[in-house]
Every structure is written in structure tokens, then in C-alpha cells.
Amino acid sequence: MTLGVPESDREARRQVGALPFRRTSHGGFEILLVTSRESRRWVIPKGWPMKGRKPYEAAAREAYEEAGLVGQVGKRPLGFYLYEKRLKSRDFVLCQVKVFPLEVRKQLKHWPEQHEREGRWFSPSEAAEAVAEAGLSGIIRSVTKRELHFAK
């Protein structure tokens, strides 16, 4: 409940996000998280839908803008989670983020928000612990190599 309104009674604004991952030499995988600009908490690259782009394409674009990532994005979401976004007005808005897998092929040397955020590779269990949103943590905990592979 926030501001006296239960989450179930508030309309969530839609966002899209990418869960960037790379395979490791020992057969596992790692997940890249970035810091949010304001609170500096660990999050996935995400943002508002983009006119003229499919949701998974917009998610891949956010991964490029926020972390310089290029790769293959899955067309089917892994799931979604809710969080409260603080707006410039200092108000909060409830957002529902649809999460798409992104298999990272490379990280560019330069990208639009590189001086505004930090990025770091985590093991899946470390990533699940590092994020504040319980729903995102649950998505990270539920993904397996098999799911990430077949989500394309």
C-alpha cells in the first residue's frame, strides 16, 4: 500500500526491461545489472515503450542506452514485476516491467548513459540478492540456462 491506495487498486504504467546475460566458460551464466540514476540501486536496463518498436526491441534498446550492450533479445518475456518509480515531480508511479532475455554478444566502449550508471556482472544468485524488487528477484531466481536459451 502506498499513499493510502493498495497496489491492486492502482493502474500500473507499462515498461519494458532486458535481463542481460552471458554464458561462462564453465557452462553457467552471469547477469549484468546497472545502477539506477537516482537511488543507485541495482536494476536491469528498462524504460518506457517506444513508438514504432516492439516491446522486446525497446528492451534491447534500453540495454544499449544504459549499459552499451549488444546481443540477441528474446521475443517472449520471462515474466513481469511491479515497482514504484519516483518521478521528477517527486511523486511515485506504479510500473509493471515486462522482462525480456538478452544474450549479450558484446559491450561497446561508448554508449549514451555510460557516465550516469555503473554496470556489473553477477552470478544469478548474487543478482537475485542485489536487486530490491522482490518480483525481479523472483524472475532472476526462476530462470535457468534452458529457459534463457528457449526464450529466444
TrEMBL record:
Task: State the needed cofactors, names only.
Answer: Mg(2+)
Q: Which Pfam families match?
A: NUDIX
Which keywords annotate this record?
Hydrolase, Magnesium, Metal-binding
Q: Which SUPFAM superfamilies match?
A: Nudix
Q: Which domain of life is it from?
A: Bacteria
Query: Has the keyword Ribosomal protein been applied to this entry?
Result: no
Give residue ranges for domain Nudix hydrolase: 11-149
PANTHER family, alphabetically? DIPHOSPHOINOSITOL POLYPHOSPHATE PHOSPHOHYDROLASE (PTHR12629), DIPHOSPHOINOSITOL-POLYPHOSPHATE DIPHOSPHATASE (PTHR12629:SF0)
Name of the protein this chain belongs to: Nudix hydrolase domain-containing protein
Species for this entry: Methylobacterium iners
